[in-house]
């Protein structure tokens, strides 16, 4: 007798829904329905994975499919909401394509919160936080996260430092150098954030302000000067490795 196929299949579509999930019927319309019906060609009886950023992940089965909506029967609770490493990414907004990429990778790598910080050389003063959240939702759907990163409203650097929580380390990726990042992160376990500057870097006054903060730790990310989005991904990966998440 052959082995029973895994259920649901690995190819099962996965969606975030903005309502608490529970067993029973669930009607989806708008973009989620278009994705399932128009893109994935979901038919009655097909499985769908759902998560809600509150109760975890659920299995549903398509009950009926219309042109503009789809009714799912939510059946099984597959897992609870994941425990998220307590890491924030505090980053100056970049140009549209690069900041979108940075938000996606921050979600995939496990960041709990994204905080846009406005500096003197910031290219974009008012990033579209709704768009950043949408990119993070798409990344969470693809990478299997059940807890969405929070997206904070933009804050100026001086205000950020003034109100910084005393129990959270602030690892400052400084292009002028600092302690080797991995060693510094291992020496400072616990709640943390990574500070990434704008494409033109911090000016001298801002750099001095950050370095004078009691929770700030200047770190180096190797011998090469990295683009801001690359530096963010590299620093997050190092912190996750130091924290044991990888």
What's the helix and strand layout?
Layout: E1 14-16, E2 24-29, H1 30-39, E3 47-51, E4 57-65, E5 69-79, E6 87-91, H2 96-109, E7 113-118, H3 129-143, E8 150-151, E9 155-156, H4 157-162, E10 169-173, E11 179-180, H5 181-187, E12 192-196, H6 204-211, E13 216-220, H7 228-243
Parallel strand pairs: 1-3, 6-7, 6-12, 7-8, 7-9, 10-12, 10-13, 11-13
Antiparallel strand pairs: 2-5, 3-4, 4-5
Helix pairs in contact: 2-3, 2-7, 5-7
Your description of this structure?
The chain has 7 helices and 13 strands. It is 31% helix and 27% strand. Strands 6, 7, 8, 9, 10, 11, 12 and 13 form an 8-stranded parallel β-sheet that branches. It has helices spanning 30-39, 96-109, 129-143, 157-162, 181-187, 204-211, 228-243, and strands at 14-16, 24-29, 47-51, 57-65, 69-79, 87-91, 113-118, 150-151, 155-156, 169-173, 179-180, 192-196, 216-220. With 246 residues, the chain is of the alpha/beta class. The protein folds into 2 domains: 14-79, Hypothetical PUA domain-like, domain 1 (Ribosomal Protein L25, Chain P), CATH 2.40.240; 87-243, 3-Layer(aba) Sandwich (Alpha/beta knot).
Q: Which band does the percent of strand residues land in?
A: 25-35%
Distance between the termini: 38 Å
Supply the number of structural domains: 2
* Radius of gyration over C-alpha positions, nearest whole angstrom: 21 Å
Give helix and strand order, one letter per element, not per position. Answer: EEHEEEEHEHEEHEEHEHEH
CATH C-level of the largest domain:
Alpha Beta
In CATH, the architecture of the largest domain is 3-Layer(aba) Sandwich
Tell me the total number of β-strands.
Answer: 13
